[in-house]
Design a protein that fits this description.
- It catalyses: (8S)-3',8-cyclo-7,8-dihydroguanosine 5'-triphosphate = cyclic pyranopterin phosphate + diphosphate.
- One of its GO terms (molecular function) is cyclic pyranopterin monophosphate synthase activity.
- With about 160 residues, this protein is an alpha+beta fold.
- The protein has helices spanning about 40-45, 55-65, 70, 110-130; strands spanning about 25-35, 80-90, 95-105, 140-150, 155.
Length: about 160
């Protein structure tokens, strides 16, 4: 098992020095879901939410979340994010919303945290926009599906 890189020899948290790493194209994809009551699902799918377009606002929130990741996660590097896409799809079997966020950059470190932040921010926004009718919604399944680029190579969830 590899040592944790965010701790120095004395066990103190620190920002990893990436200055000697090569600039490479990097991508990460993360997913999450939000499970809800059938009535809430119907309100979203029929466009009846009082706060407006739930999925559209959540998509924008996810994009904004990815761009704000270094402001939220203390040891994340600010990165020149070159692409963020957040896809939200209604899943009647859940019932709820499936979320997938893709983030790309050309840089010296990966964008897994940005993709995870995008997916979670989108899920939180769905909750915020519909909590008046369903406080029992459940956010889950937050995970990295794909990470590619850099020294450690490619990772795909099984």
């Amino acid at each position: 098992m590899m040592p944790l890189t965010h701790f120095d020899a004395q066990g103190q948290a620190h920002m990893v020095d990436v200055s000697d790493k090569a600039i490479t194209d990097r991508v990460a994809v993360a997913a999450a879901h939000i499970k809800m009551a059938r009535e809430t699902f119907d309100i979203i799918s029929e466009g009846r939410a009082k706060k407006g377009d739930v999925l559209g606002v959540a998509r924008l929130a996810g994009i904004m979340g990815a761009k704000k990741t270094p402001d939220l996660i203390p040891l994340c590097h600010p990165l020149p994010v070159t692409k963020v896409s957040v896809e939200l799809s209604l899943d009647p079997d859940l019932p709820g919303v499936q979320i997938e966020a893709t983030v790309k950059t050309s840089g010296q470190t990966g964008v897994e945290m940005e993709a995870l932040t995008a997916a979670s921010t989108a899920a939180l926004t769905v909750y915020d926009m519909t909590k008046a009718v369903d406080k029992a919604m459940e956010i889950g399944g937050l995970r990295v599906l794909l990470k590619d680029g850099g020294k450690s190579g490619r990772y795909e969830a099984k």
